[in-house]
């Protein structure tokens, strides 16, 4: 390599303005300051202005979309600072959500892994109601006896063949036989009469000495009323006690029961809870529709049996469960605000019912595990609106 060629390469490497790349400029360019704003007088100055403007343009651009709608201005920015209403703090804090989600994931791992006492479930004993029996599941969760949530199956009637049906249709009915028989109502002269085709004769003894007065009981012959013994009085008291409704202890989601529930079973039962919560919100006056803390524990346990990856239909069912919990909290706040002269907090009759903390656990589990975080916005809007309405009513 000659010295002149080597010198040219070194000059290109030391130059900051030019780079040895494909397509670099080969025409002379004027060396003007970057602040030059005059009119180019020759080709050198013109090339300088073209290259300077090209460096300010983006590398990628697009044609303007003629069908693009302009973005609507935000309502908060359009309104003045005095008209903007701050968002109410009605949701759990971010720190609480992260902590709960972390512990819920650990609970899911611990609930599905086997322990040191591994055993095969006994299939001979029925521990749970049928999957599609919604009313029987309600009785099971309430703690009712097995005779109510596991009733004996009714025996199927024997099948009648076509020939048996034809034979039954040809047999005469008993009413036809009775209509053919003639009944005689005329008593013969010997004091007896025939009672129809059975030829059973009854002798009529006409004794003039018998009268209706003598047949009546006399004071000496009237039997005395029986005395109520201790056993009979105890039986009466027991019958009265049966009229009093019994208090059942709700069944809890024990591991022995949860091991019989898989992913599909859990989704199906959570659909039942959605129906029961909506029924409580829509018809709160209907008896035996209270959603208790035991039901909340069942929902929490069933969510731990749901797989990490679910279908769109299963996602819709879980979203409906969250919306039902939000509606329940809204209805509880409206009912508390409507009570006149009531103290703050829960009503006495609602002490055992599901509370806001249980609802937030269900909502946080669904939104965090299965990525439905947009439901937080729905909950915030619904609860903020009902609290704002309650404040307006209290002021008026």
Give a description of the structure.
- This protein is mainly α.
- The protein has 16 helices and 2 strands.
- A two-stranded antiparallel ribbon has the order 1-2.
- Helix 12 runs parallel beside helix 14 and helix 13 packs parallel to helix 15.
- It is elongated, with a radius of gyration of 45 Å.
- The N and C termini lie far apart (97 Å).
- The model is unreliable at 76-86, 173-185, 191-219, 235-244 and 341-348 (pLDDT under 50).
Helix content: 40-55%
What is the H/E string?
HHHHHHHHEEHHHHHHHH
What distance separates the N and C termini? 97 Å
In terms of per-residue confidence, which ranges show pLDDT below 50 for 5 or more consecutive residues?
76-86, 173-185, 191-219, 235-244, 341-348
């Amino acid at each position: 390599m000659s010295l002149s060629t080597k010198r040219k390469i070194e000059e290109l490497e030391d130059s900051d303005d030019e780079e040895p790349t494909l397509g670099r400029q080969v025409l002379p360019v004027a060396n003007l300051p970057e602040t030059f704003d005059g009119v180019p007088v020759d080709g050198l100055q013109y090339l300088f202005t073209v290259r300077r403007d090209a460096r300010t343009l983006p590398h990628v651009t697009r044609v303007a979309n003629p069908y693009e709608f302009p973005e609507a201005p935000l309502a908060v920015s359009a309104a003045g600072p005095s008209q903007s209403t701050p968002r109410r703090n009605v949701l759990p804090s971010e720190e609480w959500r992260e902590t709960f989600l972390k512990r819920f994931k650990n609970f899911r791992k611990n609930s599905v892994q086997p322990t040191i006492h591994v055993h095969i479930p006994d299939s001979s004993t029925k521990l749970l109601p049928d999957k599609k029996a919604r009313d029987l599941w309600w009785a099971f969760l309430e703690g009712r006896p097995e005779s109510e949530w596991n009733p004996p199956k009714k025996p199927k009637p024997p099948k009648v063949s076509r020939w048996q049906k034809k034979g039954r249709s040809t047999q005469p009915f008993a009413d036809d036989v009775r209509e053919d028989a003639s009944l005689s109502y005329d008593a013969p002269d010997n004091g007896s009469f025939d009672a129809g085709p059975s030829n059973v004769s009854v002798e009529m003894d006409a004794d003039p000495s018998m009268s209706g007065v003598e047949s009546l009981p006399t004071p000496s012959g009237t039997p005395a009323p029986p005395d109520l013994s201790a056993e009979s009085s105890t039986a009466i008291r027991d019958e009265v006690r049966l009229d009093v409704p019994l208090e059942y202890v709700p069944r809890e989601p024990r591991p022995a029961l949860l091991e019989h529930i898989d992913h599909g079973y859990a989704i199906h039962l959570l659909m039942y809870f959605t129906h029961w919560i909506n029924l409580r919100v829509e018809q709160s006056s209907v008896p035996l529709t209270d959603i208790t803390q035991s039901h909340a524990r069942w929902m929490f346990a069933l969510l731990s049996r749901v797989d990490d990856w679910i279908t769109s239909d299963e996602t819709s069912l879980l979203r409906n469960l969250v919306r039902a919990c939000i509606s329940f909290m809204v209805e509880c706040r409206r009912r508390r605000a409507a009570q006149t002269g009531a103290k703050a907090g829960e009503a006495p009759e609602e002490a055992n019912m599901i509370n806001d903390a249980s609802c937030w656990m269900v909502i946080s589990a669904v939104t965090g595990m299965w990525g439905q975080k947009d439901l937080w916005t729905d909950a915030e809007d619904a609860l903020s609106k009902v609290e704002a309405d309650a404040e307006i009513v209290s002021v008026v």
